[in-house]
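Posting for a labmate who doesn't have an account.
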Amino acid sequence: MRALVSDEEVFTSVDIGTGPDFTVVAALKLPPGSWVVFATVALAAASNALGTYTIQMLFQLDGAPYGTAVQTDFTIANQVGGSVGGFRVVPLTTGLVLDAPKTLQVGCVATQKNTVSSQPTTITAIQVESVTRIR
């Protein structure tokens, strides 16, 4: 068994776009094998635009959607002390079997541009003997 973790030693915040393409906030190159994958998607306010915005996030394999998107509401509000902000962490989990090396990505899309940005997002992939997907 082995585990691979995305390295965001040099992190750059990315504004989440409105699509149609998902904005990639983290990526991890995986070799062939069976993998159980966990990601922690961290989001923060990118503006002072008070309100609630819908964010969708999903895994992608080499840029193609993999699985169903997860949706969350993200609220930018007045904070204690008079500042404006918001923060949210959303977990993603999946299993996959690769016959060839691929890049696993976490992609996000927002209902309004320039409102939400990425924070350090971690992907952890644990190689296992086999994965059975139940639909």
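Reply:
Got it, the structure tokens are right above this. Residues 2-128 form a domain with the Jelly Rolls fold (CATH 2.60.120.1340).
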